[in-house]
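USER:
Make up one protein:

ASSISTANT:
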Amino acid sequence: MKQKLLLVCFLASVVFSYAQDLPSNPTPGKCYVKCITKDTFKEVTETYQASPEYTTLKVQPATYKTVEERVLVKEASKRYEYVPAVYETVEVSYVKKEAGSNLSVIPATFGTDSKTYETYPKTSGWEYKILEDCPSVNKDDCVAACFVEYPAQFREVSFTTLASDAKTTSDPVAGRDATYKKRVVKTPARVNEIEIPAEYKTITRQVVDTPARAIPTTVPSRSETITRTVLDQKGGISTWEEVDCELLDPNVLPVFYELGSARLTAASKKTIDNTLLPLMKDSNVSVEIMSHTDSRGNDDFNQSLSQQRANSVVNYLVSKGISRSRLSARGFGESRLTNRCSNGVDCSEAQHQRNRRTEFRVLSN
């Protein structure tokens, strides 16, 4: 109830606020829409530098001359002659089998034991339960909250213990010696170094006689003019426009289209010239164009087609000098049928025709 009272007070304040700005000396039986003057623009011409002054360069190629030059074609190097080593045979003593010991293993012995572990702690918390045979439509009204406590969980685990670890006893094993023959170097190998001289030849090659250079040429700058639109006078001034009250509600325009097309026929253009165009030229009101289709055909196609048809009316009015800012176009497809002829319903062509309509209504801008 408090919210309803606040809403009534808010609406009353809005009505009072608008009443302070209503037109004086209104005509009985007429309706008024509040229009805000649009921005006005003018064209100005400015000169700008279309291209800057710059320099072009013409290259004068380099000139060459032929010279002779003695060049190295094979570097000096060395050749190496290998003299192999001379060997002799000697006898070498070695331990064929080292002294050691044999180990006997005494295995480990084991016992058993057990221990108790806590596998899950003691817990508690709230749990919610929906009561059966709840008389309320809202099941949340029949929810009970219970504080539940769960005891801890334990488990006894058996395990093996070590009584005595494994160990070994040692028994000695005697070693054994032997000899083998070995070839050793008597005279080491050597390398004899032999010098190989370098080789040369005379070649001819071209070298730069006169380097290449660039010859500069200055190209002057170029200016052009541009015409642009600038704000001449800021709009925003509110005025009241007197209109017939029925123009505030959707009014059907007898505008007809070819099947599946958004192109205006000559008859439809004449209808717009005689009805909607004078209203737009004699006032500053804004108008909304609303187009509809019948239910036949694909829903998405009908939606797109209705928007194209509304756009075609707006574009025609703009071509007649009406500012696009005073116009809006909306397509409703088959969403606002005036009769029962929806998808799948058998209707006459005349009944379908009543749904294929274009409407307009005056808006307060």
Residues 299-319 form the longest helix (21 residues).
